[in-house]
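Practice record 12: protein with 2-phosphoglycolic acid.
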Amino acid sequence: MTPDARRPYIAGNWKMFKTAGEAREFTQKLLARLPMGNGVELALCPPFTALAATLDGLGGSEIKVLAQNMHQEPEGAFTGEVSAPMLVELGVHGTLLGHSERRQYFNETDRALQEKIPAALGAGLQPMLCVGESEDEREEGETQRKLRHQVQEALERVPDAQLADVVIAYEPIWAIGTGKVATAEMAQDAIGFIRALVGDRSKDAAERVRVLYGGSVKPENAAAILAQPDIDGALVGGASLDPDGLIEIVTAAAAQVQ
Ligand code: PGA
């Protein structure tokens, strides 16, 4: 039985897409067409420059807004960075951390994540930690080793009592933006393994922590992935840029709670 705390969660990662004006237009279409009271937690992750417009456009709705990254220090001489208090003041609910594109192109390290996750939690922001193996690592049978390393390192400084406040997104790098989706079975295996890693720290947290799948999730494949017992939702990139595509994925998640 899935505990209540594991309400299905769909997050749309817009990456470096949408100006503030485009974000506002998106929110209007989304609110007009999204069936309310569907039991699914929905979040949008716009670029920093569109956070305020997205929040404003969503008004008093229950849809959450997450940033795509955050610096670990509350303030300082870190040109180009954004801190937790800055996000909190805007009304942002949480932040993606450790997305593979940040690890690959911007030198995001497990060491930095060790500080970022507690900093987010301390500020009252929900961290969504992204982990996942490359194609080479999967082919070499290194998937579990990589996931163990990423999950253990990133959560090292999170107290057991707060582990379930972190959302984890399993995103195999080879499936991101490539159209190559992991099979539902592959995603379930990796996510079951991630849940067990949290369980090595706290059995209670393992039952409550939400673990999402990400990587080429589309309206056509969402239902099969979301039906897996350990998969609590999806982190959706490309398909979240279109409100209708995102709504179809939310509808597939809602069918799981019926
Ligand atoms: P994708 O991206 O759905 O476009 O593969 C997922 C992500 O990077 O979060």
